[in-house]
Amino acid sequence: MDDSTTAKLALVISVAVALWELVKYLLEGGRVRVRMNPALVDDYRIRRSTRSWPNLKAAVVKEGGWYMEAVEVEIENISRSAVTLSDVNLDFGRSGRFRLGHHSIGPAPMKFGQGSTDSTVRLEPFDRVTYVFDAWSAIDAARESRTNLGMRPLRRMRASVRVAGKRWRTRSPWRKSWRILEGRRSFMDQDPPVHMVAFQSIMRWLGDRDEGTVDSRTISVALDIGKMYPVSGAAPTKEQIAELLAKHTSSQSRAKEKDVQDRYAAFRIAIDLQRCYPSSQSLSASAASTSPAPLGGADETS
Question: Do 36 and 151 sit in the same domain of this protein?
Fold first, then answer.
């Protein structure tokens, strides 16, 4: 065997050893797979689809009922060692064309189905955990923040998680990200009617996320809003919504703390409902054009 052949053989062996060490490092290090599943939550269960929103839309048309759109983030440990997870967020891409950081928001998780509410989770090999988030509350916050800071509009949404020992966050695949259409408030074919938006908003601001329960007045108040305030007229004010909440609250369960919570919830519900009323949107736009924009909140970049 001549010297040139020996040198080539040594090069092949060294490359093979380096590749094997790289494979061992990838297999032994903490690795997770992140996936987003479309989901609908109501007052007692969660309906999910591992494929697409049209599947859930067909279920809604067939079964009916009340629902709120949610995202179920599924995280699976695909490595051969235990990993520690934290900081599960919804990722909205880069903050700008020339900015390297990602714009992400971490909404409070909801305990529906098998959803976890723990801030830190330890996963054994091939184990998994799920988090259920109110997707549109995070999208609304991201839209407002980007508008105030002059960023480009939202386009897509992914999920991300921080794995202990890793420098970079792990995100769900970009090719499976969800597209966010400008001005829309639903991942389905069309936006929900006003009574469904009212149900979703009441569920958002008065539901117990830690227990996965819904306020008993949710459906009654949502039905009243749909009947009393059609979209052809003016949107209900926070005072009118507070009166409806008080109307459907039994006197025995009234408490000062509940009144304060109801007033704040009525304020937030009124803001959510304004997007359903064209007259309210035009008034908000004219007011925004004649007044200085409020300061935006802080964005997380990673």
Answer: yes
